[in-house]
Amino acid sequence: MSRRLPSFTVAPRATRYLPWIAAALVLSATPASAQLGRLKKLGADLAKDAAKEKLDPKKETPSKPTESSASSSTSSRNTDLVLNEDRVALVVASLQPMLADATARRELRTVTAQHEEKSKASRACLETAQMKARANPMAIAQNAQKNEAQIEKLTKDVERLSEKMSAAVNANDVRTRVYVTDSLTVMQVRMSMAVLGSNCPVYYTPAPILDAQIKSQSRTVVSEDMDEGTFDPPAAAKENLSRYQFGLLRERIAIWALKQDDPTFKAGKLGIFTPEEEAALQSNAADIRKLAPLFKDGSLRWSTWGDLSQWK
After folding, report:
1. pTM
2. Among 128, 127, 117, which residue's Cα sits nearest to residue 39?
3. Max CA-CA distance within the chain?
4. What is the residue extent of each domain of the chain?
5. Residue 280, exposed/middle/buried by CB under 10 A (0-12, 13-18, 19+)?
6. What whole-number distance in Å separates Cα of residue 31 and Cα of residue 80?
7. 67-80 as b/e, with b when 16 or more CB fall inside 10 Å?
8. Computed over its alpha carbons, how large is the radius of gyration of the chain?
9. pLDDT tens column, 117-172
């Protein structure tokens, strides 16, 4: 439902600014706040572990289930979840290729949180400016005239960027489209600021966030689970561990890593380690500690197994 503008009279010269006056007054979800909403969704998508059921060991079948001995071997693996030194080293080594992406997600989450905080302050400033403008509509026309040169320049910038956007869409140039969209957002908010007579800060979205959007939008199939079926373990892991076995051993290693920083961390039976298991984990402690921050904030998967779904 549209919001009615307060009635007021403006000089003939100011009528050219009426579209911007209207936009500035009725703007309830500004481009800046809309951008903030997108960033929140991105941060949430990058941070969450998709809520998926863990693989049921009963569903774990050999690739060629023609021999009863193979089925028996799989069942035996799925009940053998003991951590020994070789297994700990194997699982930790298998995770190394995923560290670069996990670290990038962690850094992206940090950048996103910082940008959200600045955008929140910017939105609050804009809302205050809108309230003042509604209380004194005539000031808007005066501001528009006063800032005529700035508005004219921004208008030309928007027209130029709009043409660039159109070309990017026609060429399916995702990178240009994402970056130009962000620039258009900033320009449009700045024009509203000029009409409102406000100097609220407006921020461009940091490049790491835009680059993440480009990667997401460039996918042929976009999944809520960023690691859906993407884990390709080394041959040694497949030869020595079942999919279910690897998932539980990884989970136990992550729990041990988290308990080192927080002994009160609740993990149930999976977090109970025998003296032999403790020794095996301690022997690989240096490498495990490097994974701990990524386990802790969810950048490196451990508690859900979507990344193992395609492990054959």
Report:
1. 0.52
2. 117
3. 91
4. 14-44+105-217
5. buried
6. 55
7. eeeeeeebbebbee
8. 28
9. 999 999 899 888 888 888 887 888 888 888 889 889 989 999 999 999 999 999 99
